C-alpha cells in the first residue's frame, strides 16, 4: 500500500515511486512465499494530490505498465499471479487511479503477461458500472480472484441491498469459476454470526455446513 500515513494507497501507477514500489513488491513476495499464497494484489495507487486526473492519466498509465511488466517478470520466477483490483471512486476512494474492470482489462491487454489477472470485487463493480452478469461473462477469462460485499452497505451478501448473490454464485459456477471468493465485507455483527449466510446458502444447495454433499454422506 505504500506510505499510508502520507495518504498513499498503492504505488504501482504513481510516477516517481518506482523504486519504492519494487522494494515493497519484493517484500510482498517474501511474505507470500512464507505463507504459501500464490496471488498478490498489486495496488495501483491514487492520483497525486493537487493534480488533475486527466492531466496525469498518460504518465500514470506509462508508470503502471512499466511496473506491471517488472511485477510479471518477478512473479513468474515464483509461480505467482499478480492481481489488479479496480476500486470505485464514487464512494470508497475518489482519487484511486484504477476504477473499472474495463480500465483494468485495457491495462492488462497492454501489459500482455499471462500471470497478471483481474481481481474483480463485485461491490466496486456494481457501484461503478452495474451490469454484473455481462461483466462477469465478458471479463471471465481475465479473472484471477473474486471478492464480494452487498451494495450499498458493504455488509454480508444476505444483508439488504442491490445484489442477488445466489444468482451471481450460480453464474460463476456456470462459467466454470474454480477460484476463491473473498468475503471483502464488514460484518454487521461478529464474524461467526456474519457467516450465517454461507450456511444458509449451502443448505439451499443440499450441502452440509462444511460444504460437502449430504447425499454423499
TrEMBL record:
The keyword Isomerase applies. Gene3D superfamilies: Divalent-metal-dependent TIM barrel enzymes (3.20.20.150). It catalyses: 3-hydroxypyruvate = 2-hydroxy-3-oxopropanoate. It holds the Pfam family AP_endonuc_2. It is an enzyme of class 5 (isomerase). Keywords: Isomerase. This is Putative hydroxypyruvate isomerase. The lineage of its organism: Eukaryota, Metazoa, Chordata, Craniata, Vertebrata.
